[in-house]
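[audit] Reproducing an earlier prediction to check determinism. Same input, same settings, fresh worker. If the tokens differ from the archived copy the diff job will pick it up downstream; this log only records the rerun itself.
[audit] input (250 residues):
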Amino acid sequence: MSRRVVVIVVGVWIAGTAVAAELVALRGASQPPQAPRTLSVDEAAAGLQSIELRTSDGSIEVIGTDEDRIRISTEISTPAQRRKRTDGFAADLARTNLVSGRSGDVFTARLRVPGSDALVERWTVHVPHRFRVLLNANDSTIIVSDVSGGVSVRANAGLGSAPGSIRVNVPGGRLDLSLHVGDIHAQTSSAARGPVDVESHVGDARVTLAGRSIISPREPGPGHRLRLSDTGPDAVTLRVGVGTASLDIK
């Protein structure tokens, strides 16, 4: 190998090493404070029957209203402490967008976030009473009320991986709620109740029917499961990995 080729190879290696070192420094460096922002959507709901939200860490509240509109307000901020990782960049609040659209009769919404770190997202969502609500969250506190089209929730835990919370209070509709760590409490007044299946893999399962607690023997082990048979369309499934799952049927 000639001296010229050796010099070129060494030069490329040095330049690559310098770039890599700079990237590591940027990833590990403390970031300047970023001002919280509020993003919003206000759309007519004609022709729509459902809303689907995909969120990260924070809180979500969905409220049914008499308006035939979808109103979303999402406050975004950086977490008090960044997750410890060396392969990520801080999220850029200034360039974060609330992306929404229609897919058939489903309205969808999520954040598009430059950077790989999670934000703290606090969603307040108003939808028509008729809507079905579909939520796919990570570490979030979730509240859903006054919708009759059904509710489906998937969540991991609460903010900062603390125990999570799902609270649902609806007049009817199917319920399918799942939480890895934390508590689920659902209340329904459905007159068309279907099969009920309430389970905690490690913890308690509780069901009350018209104010009366349903008693079921516990099988050996740390979990608990209660099931009721019914034939209506409004099936109820609650699943908690670690925590309490409770259902109140009015």
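[audit] rerun output stored. Observation attached for the diff report: The chain is about 10% helix and 50% strand.
[audit] end
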